[in-house]
Amino acid sequence: MGEDIFAAAMQRIDAGAFGVTDLLASADRLSQSGEIQTVLTLYKTWLERNPEDPLRHLMYFNYSTILSNNGALAEAREALEKALAADPGYFPARINLGSVLERMGGKIEAINEWFQVIGQLAVINGDNLHYLKMTLTQIGRIFETANMHSKAEEIYRRCLELDPDQPEIMRHYLSMMQQQCKWPIARPFGGINPVTRKDCLKNIDPLTLGIYSDDPLYHLTNSYFYNRGAVGQVATSFADRHAERLKKRPERRLRIGYISSDLRQHAVGYLTAELFEEHDRAAVDVFIYHSGPSADDPIGRRIRQAVEHWTDITKMPDETAAKLIFADEIDILVDLNGHTSGQRAKVLAMRPAPIIVNWLGYPGSVASPVHHYIIADEFIIPKEFEKFYSEKVARIPCYQPNDRKRTVGTTCPSREEAGLPADAMVYCAFNGQHKITPHTWKRWMSILSQVENSVLWMLDSTQEICDQIRSNAEQHGVSASRLIFANRISNPDHLARYPLADLFLDTSPYGAHTTASDAMWMGVPIITLAGRSFASRVCGSIMKSAGLADLICTRSEQYVETAVELGRHRDKLLAYRQQLRASRDACVLFDTTLLARSVEEAYRQMWADLQSGKLPQPDLANMEVYRDIALELDNDDVEISMVEDYEAIYRRKLAERANYSYVAKDGRLAP
What we know:
The chain is about 50% helix and about 10% strand. The protein is an alpha/beta fold.
């Protein structure tokens, strides 16, 4: 049939009786039959025979799209250039030309094309606004991936000034502000449509919010709306098929599926490698569904060798991946991503397993209707904090797995070789700079001001960000010379130099996670400030599990006073260092065998809940009400983790709303 369509079309082209409408119709019919090469031949022939057609720029554009989709980038570029020669003002062609140039490795050339579009869009109307936003988004993305943070920030701001209701752009903009330590990150700015602080915060990324505020109810509701936006509606659900399958399920090991984009040289991969090796194969049958960048690296290969089943679902459509997981008859599906890059929220939304668990990847509640449990420990989620989570809490001794086989460089440099003063009190802060808040920075500057001959050792970043951080120090009266930036080196060599530091200063409210266990492994004490949210309590959990609970602070003043005291009396730090080294091989934090047995027991309890009809259902009541309250609170001038009557604030505002609007009773604070 395709041959007949093509032959008839070619005859009419030769006769000069084949217009644009005919070309589009024939190309569509051939495309539906999968005859892409025939479609390309049809377009190429028509364009050669109709060099003066007034709509040829549109046909060149269509032709280029098919070429680009099939990897013929050089030909796609040529077609787009011909489209622009026919109509220089056809913006979609120039936008796509930039995309093709980028894919060919020409990022500068791509940006130049996109800036031409911006320069030509003098009048902002409906169509032009669409093209302008699209072009600014592309430019911002290139700048962001190139770590040109201030340029990306500027472009994203210009895009938001045109239209503040762009959730994804707002998330990137706030992330750029956070990356640069430009505080406050959620500041109003002008434009055609002025952007308010609320505009910023209602679309903040969950991870960005975890750094910005220690308000667990805000985290919960923000996760809910973020997940709802990421999933939308799904056409397929396996929810109704699990009960029937359960009746027919034979006695066998529990099938545990782990879905993640990060089981490679990534923090999650480093943490879980030994867990997969320690899993009891007599108790659990482990399936991994990999959904991210190549895992062909030492960590990825190690994990792959440790498990019985590994499937790469990265390029699979969501429904295909969900069907595969369902066909594998997974009993418990463990989401190791949550709200992080590479997550497959739509796959999970199809409920391909009867039990879905949130663990490790995202430090907080996913707040989805499909996640039944969150794995934590008694410190991270004490009983009184369970109300801040939609999932039921499944506790193990320490929530974070660790790898006792991690590679450490063989040589520790001297302080001089690392650029550190030999006799100084060295505070290190090896969390990413984006985790620093103005409240944390104020504490650090107070500590440096009170401890003579002290320095702050931080990870290096771009020159621009380092300059911003130095400027922030000067504004607090601390010489920028007391900030020392550690060059980026391999993870084993970075671990080897840890002992050059005297004390690790944790960030708040998003504290150290993998970096904390690295410090504990290398015998470097940490001081942390534990709040109410998950991310703010992970470091405390790690320290407690390593036997260092007395350096967990709950008040800002306590954090500063303790850091100052230890900085002035380094002999006290020596005792902590000796304690860490002596207990490392016996402490809970590094007992991966204990963790494996504990999490397997948690899985068995989840399965028992399902069998007895007690599978918990996520509590998602009043999400909009709680978010509205959260958006009213001041997280810039007030450090909400230090506010003692936190829950009372919400209760008062819930009572106020009840005076004019119905507020349903829930399991949290609504009476």
